[in-house]
Design a protein that fits this description.
It contains twelve helices and three strands; from the N terminus they run E-H-H-H-E-H-H-H-E-H-H-H-H-H-H. By secondary structure, the protein is mostly helical. The relative contact order is 0.15.
Length: 319
């Protein structure tokens, strides 16, 4: 690798969690287990929604897309870390680092957008139940998913192209287990003002925008539920969005926890450990949340594993 003021570096070093050799085997087994659970769990959700015709509804269409994105999201970081542990190497090529950063940003932003789309779907299902299938028609569902991709891909590509314009000096050690955008920008020797501005703008647009949409949707949902007179009706209405609300809470609470931990501790190592929650743990737990809180998913999985018959479902039956 060239050093000094030469910007033509060929590789970065991912420092990971610990340099103690005795902990490497434990970290490898732990992350390999979580990765396999994530992939298998989300694949089962996709298989269940595809194989069962009763689940060919808008909510499950969005859920299968979310499961696919979660698989890709985890696959951008964990496999490379496992390979580095196995080969006892911390190296990631410059091109590989930029590529990993790009796809991590894309699938992370898609997670955010799809959760917002699913919140809108629950809003229509609860606040406008009689017009649910008319409003949430296949054409609109497809456009909502496509719009999420169109919104996320260019912004994340812009981040990557701007990082390519930065100059890097000799210090190219990333105190993380993957190429995280802020970490890479802070390693640059050149001025990063424009990069920081784009990061803040994207955080507001792709972070604050979806959060505002989710908050608005659930404020309307809560108002509609409060207007229901029967307690049983309130419970049934709330149960339709219990799974999604749990996933949203997990995603944003863990993301916020990472941000707060980084601000309080000012430790890159602590930030790397905390980021495991939303990069690995959350995608792993999502299939369990939907299978445990969702009666229709549980029935579909029983058909896959045991061949039991299941009754029909509707767009509202998401308990």
């Amino acid at each position: 690798m060239k050093t000094g003021n030469d910007t033509q570096i060929s590789e970065f070093l991912l420092l990971g969690f610990s340099e103690e050799p005795q902990l490497q085997a434990l970290i490898f087994v732990l992350f390999l287990s979580m990765y396999l659970i994530t992939v298998c769990g989300n694949l089962l959700i996709i298989l269940a929604t595809i194989s069962d015709s009763h689940l060919h509804t808008p909510m499950y269409f969005f859920l299968s897309n979310l499961s696919f994105v979660d698989i890709c999201f985890t696959s951008t970081t964990v496999p490379k870390m496992l390979v580095n542990i196995q080969t006892q190497s911390k190296v990631i090529t410059y091109a590989g680092c930029i590529t990993q950063m790009y796809f991590f940003l894309v699938f992370g932003a898609l997670d955010d957008c799809l959760l917002t789309v699913m919140a809108f779907d629950r809003y229509v299902a609860i606040c406008h139940p009689l017009h649910y299938m008319v409003i949430m028609n296949p054409w609109l569902c497809g456009k909502l998913v496509l719009a999420s991709w169109i919104m996320c891909v260019p912004f994340c590509l812009l981040h990557s192209l701007m990082v390519l314009q930065l100059s890097f000096c000799a210090h190219v050690e990333i105190p993380h287990f993957f190429c995280e955008l802020n970490q890479i920008v802070h390693l640059a020797c050149s001025d990063t003002f424009l990069n920081d501005m784009v990061i803040y703008f994207a955080a507001v647009l792709l972070g604050g925008g979806p959060q505002a949409g989710i908050i608005y949707s659930y404020s309307k949902i809560i108002s509609s539920i409060r207007a229901i007179s029967l307690a049983q009706g309130k419970y049934k209405a709330f149960s339709t969005c219990a799974s999604h609300l749990s996933v949203v809470s997990l995603f944003y609470c863990t993301s916020l926890g990472v941000y707060l931990s980084a601000e309080v501790t000012h430790s890159s190592q602590s930030s790397a450990v905390a980021s495991v929650m939303y990069t690995v743990v959350t995608p792993m737990l999502n299939p369990f949340i939907y299978s445990l809180l969702n009666k229709n998913i549980k029935k579909a999985l029983k058909v896959i594993f045991w061949g039991k018959n299941m009754k029909g479902s509707t767009g509202l039956e998401l308990k």
